[in-house]
Amino acid sequence: MKWSFVFQVTEENVYSVLCFADVYLLNGLKRLCARAISTFLDPENVLTVLRTSRLFNLPKLETDCCEYISKHLEKVRKN
Length: 79
Hints:
By secondary structure, the chain is mostly helical. It has helices spanning 14-23, 27-39, 46-55, 59-71, 73-78. Helix 2 packs parallel to helix 4. It is elongated, with a radius of gyration of 14 Å.
């Protein structure tokens, strides 16, 4: 039996979906969440997202965070 479902990953639910994907070893869904999270980066959340990327073993998201920090260092430093 094969099944599928459709849902929308939003800024409000992405961390819950990421936790679900991690528990159930759904690496493709984890990567999808990481891509969504990278679109929400801002000076206030980038350091938290960086820690999250390391916790959930998401190297692309970690790289995105580091690049964001390097491009917006002054704004990140002020927060």
